[in-house]
């Protein structure tokens, strides 16, 4: 179905096939280390244009991809797909910019999506790519790639932010978005987009990532992407070491105050470095150290008293308004969970004890399991079939295995488990499938299926028909120190909101509290 031929780009020799002059086609320019992917209706003429471009002189070969069923809608779509997957494949460093990346609809797209798998297998046989599509789709490099195709919502947000940043003077742009709406994807895409743009070429730009494990992942990705550097992915304390023109702050709700944290000494030192007191927080550091700030925020993902809750966040915004032009953007389309926005709203209602009628979601598995052994076995089965399936829980058990690796932390119905042995890159670690992840090892990551344990720190008052918490059963000392009952209840609810929105294909629940189990069973199918 697909014909792939090789041409000599250095000598401008491509063969005599008629389709090289007038047919929609794809091509891959490469030199063994770097690649550029493109499409054209007149590839021979396009090669002449590339030959006279200084930045394309690094290439010596070209691979033409022909199909009698190609039209230009298909080649535009396949070009975007090839850029995304070849960048994640890591055989080549992809040299494309990402300005034109967007999700495209066209006639018979579903059929062509299936045929793309055939093309990819052909590229594997030709040794132009290494990994299978399934392997790549489960990789962080694919998920957080700056070459992701954006939906209309995300594309509009990128354009709005870029337009705002072109204006003179200091800017503050707030991007609100629920879990799975693509905040991190937009932040990474925007970083590449700005770095590739002539208008921002001289600007010093950084991406602030509060979460250590995600920061490590993104540094690895930036290191492998043409035009980006690992040093441009920053911790909050990195920000205090120099001034920036533009800072993009991912997961702003995860920035910290000088409160209930384990690194008070370094926090003080960072404050002193830029002349602030410990009354300030990491968001203050960002605003102090840049001319323009883009803040990605979700008020429902603040999971402890050290975070930047919505009241504190809004105070900062109000205080900055006289100095900075303020723009609000919103990501409203659910991209992670196949249950869509309706599922996210349903989770919110479940955790608030406010569900009135049972809902089911097409293409999404929300299930309750009452037998923990069955719950555990189902997880292993799903992992074998789909990979990237993990068990996670609220912090309802102590963590003795942290000091003694021979001990178990969690025991339910005779099944013993340990908490995550690490937080950095735990999701992708070999041991993760046998462990239970806490909020700090899971937040910000995608799973194919989430197997979530609701512990005895959360329950249900059937008489009052409302959720309750048991602080004595909540073992995150930093998470509950100085928190009133009402605040702690909110943090615990937020933790489960995050955990229940990790699964792309489905979420399975095991509930320790009998009254809560009974309440949830009215609205979630039991298996």
Automatic annotation (TrEMBL):
CDD domains: GIY-YIG_COG3410. InterPro entries: P-loop_NTPase, SLFN_3-like_DNA/RNA_helicase. It comes from the Bacteria. Residues 171-513 form the Schlafen group 3-like DNA/RNA helicase domain. Gene3D superfamilies: P-loop containing nucleotide triphosphate hydrolases. Pfam families: SLFN-g3_helicase. SUPFAM superfamilies: P-loop containing nucleoside triphosphate hydrolases. Transmembrane segments: none annotated. This is DUF2075 domain-containing protein. The lineage of its organism: Bacteria, Bacillati, Bacillota, Clostridia, Lachnospirales.
């Amino acid at each position: 179905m697909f014909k792939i031929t090789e041409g000599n780009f250095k000598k401008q020799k491509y063969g005599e096939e008629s389709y090289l002059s007038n047919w929609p086609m794809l091509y891959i320019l490469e030199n063994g280390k770097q690649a550029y992917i493109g499409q054209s209706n007149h590839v021979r003429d396009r090669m002449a244009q590339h030959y006279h471009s200084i930045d394309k002189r690094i290439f010596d070969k070209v691979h033409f991809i022909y199909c009698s069923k190609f039209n230009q809608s298909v080649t535009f779509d396949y070009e975007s797909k090839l850029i995304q997957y070849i960048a994640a494949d890591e055989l080549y460093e992809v040299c494309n910019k990402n300005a034109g990346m967007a999700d495209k609809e066209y006639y018979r797209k579903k059929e062509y999506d299936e045929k793309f798998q055939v093309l990819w297998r052909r590229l594997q046989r030709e040794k132009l790519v290494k990994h299978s599509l399934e392997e790549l789709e489960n990789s962080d490099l694919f998920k957080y790639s700056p070459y992701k195709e954006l939906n209309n919502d995300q594309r509009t947000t990128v354009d709005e932010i870029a337009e705002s940043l072109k204006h003179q003077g200091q800017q503050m742009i707030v991007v609100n978005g629920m879990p799975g709406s693509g905040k991190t994807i937009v932040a990474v895409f925007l970083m590449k987009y700005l770095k590739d743009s002539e208008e921002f070429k001289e600007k010093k730009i950084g991406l602030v990532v509060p979460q250590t494990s995600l920061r490590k992942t993104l540094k690895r990705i930036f290191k492998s992407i043409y035009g980006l550097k690992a040093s441009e992915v920053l911790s909050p304390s990195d920000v205090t070491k120099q001034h920036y023109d533009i800072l993009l702050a991912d997961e702003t709700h995860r920035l910290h105050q000088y409160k209930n944290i384990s690194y008070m000494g370094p926090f003080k030192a960072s404050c002193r470095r830029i002349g602030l007191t410990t009354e300030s927080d990491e968001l203050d550091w960002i605003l102090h150290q840049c001319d323009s700030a883009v803040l990605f925020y979700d008020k429902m993902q603040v999971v402890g008293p050290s975070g930047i809750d919505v009241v504190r966040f809004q105070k900062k915004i109000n205080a900055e308004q006289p100095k900075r032009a303020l723009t609000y953007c919103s990501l409203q389309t659910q991209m992670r969970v196949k249950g869509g926005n309706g599922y996210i709203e349903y989770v919110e209602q479940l955790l608030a004890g406010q569900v009135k009628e049972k809902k089911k979601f097409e293409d999404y598995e929300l299930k309750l399991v009452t037998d923990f052994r069955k719950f555990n076995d189902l997880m292993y089965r799903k992992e074998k079939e789909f990979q990237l399936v993990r068990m996670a829980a609220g912090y309802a058990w102590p963590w003795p295995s942290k000091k003694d690796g021979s001990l178990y932390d969690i025991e339910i119905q005779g099944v013993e488990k340990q908490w995550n042995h690490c937080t950095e890159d735990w999701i992708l670690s070999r041991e993760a499938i046998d462990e239970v992840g806490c909020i700090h090892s899971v937040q910000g990551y995608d799973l194919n299926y989430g197997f979530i344990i609701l512990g005895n720190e959360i329950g249900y008052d059937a008489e009052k028909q409302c959720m309750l918490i048991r602080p004595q059963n909540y073992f995150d000392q930093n998470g509950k120190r100085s928190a009133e009952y009402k605040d702690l209840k909110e943090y615990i609810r937020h933790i489960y909101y995050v955990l229940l929105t990790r699964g792309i294909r489905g979420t399975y629940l095991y509930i320790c509290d009998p009254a809560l189990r009974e309440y949830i069973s009215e609205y979630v199918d039991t298996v």
